[in-house]
Amino acid sequence: MSVNQSLKPLTTEVNEAGNISVGGCDLKELAEKYGTPLYVIDEDTLRGVCRDYKEAFKDCPNIKMMYASKALCTSAITRILDEEGFGFDTVSAGEIYTVYKSGVDMSKVLFNGNNKTRREIELALSVKIGRFSVDNFYEAELLNKIAEEKGVKVDILLRLTPGIECHTHEYIQTGQIDSKFGFDLNQVDNIITLIINEYKNINIKGVHAHIGSQIFELKSFEDEVEILIKEIARINKKFGLSLDEMNIGGGLGVKYTEKDCPPDVKALAEAVTNAMHRHSVKIPAIYLEPGRSIISTSGVTLYTVGSSKEVNIDGKIKRYVAVDGGMADNPRPSMYQAEYTADVVNKPNFQKNEKVTIAGRYCESGDILINEIALPNLEPGDIICVYNTGAYNYSMASNYNRVEKPAMVLVKSSQSDIIVNRESLDDLIIRDNIPDRLRK
Ligand code: LLP
């Protein structure tokens, strides 16, 4: 079993005090010490996933692991992934800057995205980023122009849309034909001709695709690898090039609830290598860029229970229990109908005799974290731990309702360290400005 198949961080236990602990840290104590909502990241689980990936792909020559930093990008997380030997997929000046400032060798970083700005391109060039994944005609022309101004030649991959429809939420599919990302296969010859004849400051190294996220079907990855390999062989033959890099993106799923059965990382490795070996062409270097499956399972979010309300729907009682966070720290349930599971930190061995709906504290009816979950009877002050919140929670968090973003702590061997400070009320107004005519 690999870590992405686990619902909870690997170090999750019930301790002597009768509370749930992660990384040897009592979650109730963490809630008291740092306040709630609180993001908690378990370092051993995170390093365990990295080991899973390295082990699974160890017989695959030329494999390069990149972490899709959009899943969770903070300086300490970047340090851990760097120590584990991962490179980084970045999509903004902010991600590039975070990775750069945390001391990463920038030749291991890729800059991806469908509308990179001049400022971002200039930043990426100034820190000597390893690769650009060029998404469209406009970008190719702009990148070439900026590279020419600076007198540099940039190594790129071409972002392709392989036309694969995989089984996941519509908003997180990316590889299908009707997509805002990448070149359609019928545009490839045009862009390559332009690069060869006109864009002299661009050097094509290979191709890049990403077919979607939270994928459970390995067949989609096999199809992707086959399409990309064939495309590389075709391009090389037709244009006399020697492209030898293939970035197959991320997308492996994780287990948010008991009913999710994502494949393990070994099975992914087998699917990818088998698809590669079905062709007699020279095997290119393969880049993987998982995000969710790297960081999701390591993360849990702690909330404190507050108010509750019972409604009578046609004689059936439904109980809402509100916590002190919700859609601003985890927008996934309201955006994608994502499902999560949870436990009560201070009541792990109590009978789960009540079905409750965990509501957030934000002013929207849709702010429901978990619908109808069986839990022990909840009282104000109880601490709830929602599992699998490492990916796309903090990275998509907002200040909706002018609420401060939570802190994040890293736990390991019974030690906890703040890796993101809780925002303060002053943080919320620090960038506000009152024009002179409105001042009191
Ligand atoms: N590479 C590229 C080019 C991507 O666009 C993405 C994710 C990844 C890699 C990483 O995919 P992963 O391994 O994390 O599935 N906010 C959504 C997920 C959006 C994913 C966007 N692209 C969510 O919360 O489910």
Largest sheet: 9 strands, mixed
Each distinct ligand: ligand LLP
**Average pLDDT, all residues:** 95
Strand content: 25-35%
Global structural class: alpha/beta
The best one-word shape is globular
**Radius of gyration, CA atoms, in whole angstroms:** 23 Å
Can you count the beta strands?
21
End-to-end C-alpha gap: 63 Å
The DSSP helix count reads: 12
Please estimate the helix content.
25-40%
Low-confidence stretches: none
Layout of strands and helices, then pairs:
Layout: E1 13-14, E2 20-22, E3 25-26, H1 27-34, E4 38-42, H2 43-56, E5 63-68, H3 75-83, E6 87-90, H4 93-101, E7 109-111, H5 118-126, E8 131-134, H6 137-150, E9 154-161, E10 183-184, H7 188-197, E11 202-208, H8 218-239, E12 245-247, H9 265-277, E13 285-288, H10 292-295, E14 299-313, E15 316-323, H11 332-336, E16 342-344, E17 354-359, E18 368-375, E19 383-387, E20 407-412, E21 415-420, H12 425-429
This protein binds ligand LLP.
Structural write-up:
The protein has 440 residues and is α/β, with parallel strands linked by helices. Helix 2 runs parallel beside helix 9 (265-277) and helix 5 crosses helix 6. The model has no long low-confidence stretch (mean pLDDT 95). The chain starts with 12 loop residues before the first strand and ends in an 11-residue tail after the last helix. It has helices spanning 27-34, 43-56, 75-83, 93-101, 118-126, 137-150, 188-197, 218-239, 265-277, 292-295, 332-336, 425-429, and strands at residues 13-14, 20-22, 25-26, 38-42, 63-68, 87-90, 109-111, 131-134, 154-161, 183-184, 202-208, 245-247, 285-288, 299-313, 316-323, 342-344, 354-359, 368-375, 383-387, 407-412, 415-420. Bound molecules: ligand LLP. The site of ligand LLP has 22 residues, from helix 10 and helix 11.
